[in-house]
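User: Can you write out an input/output pair for a complex, sequences first and structure second?

Assistant: Here is one pair. Inputs:
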Amino acid sequence: MPEVLTAPLVVEFPFTRSLGPVQSAFLTGLRERTVLGVTASDGRVVVPPTEYDPVTAEEIRDLVEVGTSGTVTTWAWNPSPRRGQPLATPFAWVLVRLDGAGTALLHALDAPGPDAVRTGMRVRVRWAPERTGAITDIACFEPDDGPAGDGRPVPHSGAFDDPVTQITLPARLDYTYAPGRAQSRYLQALAEHRIVGERCPSCDKVYVPPRGACPTCGVATGTQVEVGPRGTVTTFCIVNIKAKNLDIEVPYVYAHIALDGADLALHARIGGIPYDRVRMGLRVEPVWTEDSRFPDHYRPTGEPDAGYDSYKELI
Amino acid sequence: MRDVAVVAFGQSDHARDSAETSEVEMLMPVLHDVLEQTGLAARDIGFTCSGSSDYLAGRAFSFTMALDGVGAWPPISESHVEMDGAWALYEAWVKLLTGEAETALVYSYGKSSPGSVRDVLTRQLDPYYAAPLWPDAVALAALQAQALIDAGLTDPQELAGIAARSRAAAATHPHAQLRGEVPMGETLVAPLRTGDCPPIGDGAAAVVLAAGDTARRLTDRPAWIRGLDHRIEAHALGVRDLTDSPSTRLAAERAGAFERPLDTAELHAPFTSQEVVLRRALRLDAPDSTVCVNPSGGALAANPVMATGLIRLGEAAARIQRGASDRALAHATSGPCLQHNLVAVLEGE
């Protein structure tokens, strides 16, 4: 078993989402230290509010203001906060039914320890010092020793100056990518400036880069076959738009290249020749730059062009 | 309506980390296993349906790579659900009921090892009100567990008993990841301890379905799907009664689970506390009940996310196929705190 290759892979995306009228009112309200709910068809006040009745799916729009104190309906003690969670010190996750609400809101409760938390305890909102119109405008909840409010929701227009109509929600997940057996072998060979495909035991085709399975036969490709390094351009395109963070002058050519001995064309950039001189049948070879684990690009070998029949099955 | 049966089931060994194999390399032996059991070749299969998640893989359209393991040329009839494979089986079942196919290959796989599955699962939450707080999957299950304890429906001792029973049942299971005597361990998110939570791991599963006489031809004892239904509840946790699972109960009712006694139930309960909810919803706690719950060890013994639900269907079917059960219930779940639930009733002849 060769060494298992791994590499860090970060998937990060700042989702920008538009808000409907109800979500907009709720999140703008948080910015203004006001908690809004919406009255459902059964008379229950839903907090945080939804645009559709959770039971009947009817559109609901009747906004009401509820209290900023409430009662814990269930909780869980989190001794090891994780990235992105509301508090960096141990805290309780809580569902809180705010005074006047019929449903509970998920958030964090800042408490000294699990012994200080119980279902039924009274808590109040701790507002974030800087608020933008997001659920995190509630920094967390904190224990509340004050008297319970009267619990009557008050009708609210939902109108605020400068309403929040969209929010950007950063999301980041960290992975350790492992390419598996076939691709690890391929990458390890590339580091030695060799290109290795794998042959299907059933149809005899050589796949490069190999992924461990023959997509035609659905069987494992186990036998390694060195292919190339020279190959033939089977088809190509001219790229005229510069990609972000890509240090290549446009226009340039991106091509499918059938390496000698391979039954599948791989794709790579063509260099060392003006973009408008690249053609089908052009014979090319990889160019490795120092310390690179893969060819930087392919360049013409100077050989006569390959005949169409020699690569027509690989286009 | 046509009769449709599970005629073959296979699964990988479930492991904490399968970095040495890619998804398709992990999946392929399982696909070959179920095809061999039936004597079918990939080209004989009428419909193929799979379940997996890009968020587990950290890559877009990751299922298209796994499709290489099926042999998708010449072109096959194929579909994919970004869900547990149990829902892929549901789609395949419908396809067979309509008469558009005679056989179906259903598979699913998940590798939790590349990422942090507790965090990955936050991405299925409501993006406006819940996801920005990053409440991980264990935290949400712990809220449900505390609600059950507060309601007097369970206690930490009972939860530990469920964990012990599940892993003891898996002691002889050749594919299980966590088996035998497993300590309850430290508190992860109170009231849940490590032992109340599923192992994190990688794995794959596959099932072959067939209709009517084709099923009889392919196996000695088909596991007939007598009913299959799935129901979903409101997403927001604070809207639901976390101590109950009305969607499971309704799906079971529609699948015919309560019409006659069952002998086996394979429940998709990654957390001990969720088994308590499901047993109540499915009325498995009657004093005279003889239903054997999770003889495979369930999700507490192996939890390859996206395949765990399909495995429940497969385990129930396999038990029927080998004559250990005559009428089994299989359950799969999706979403936070048992939001979405699927129930199948399987019978031998």
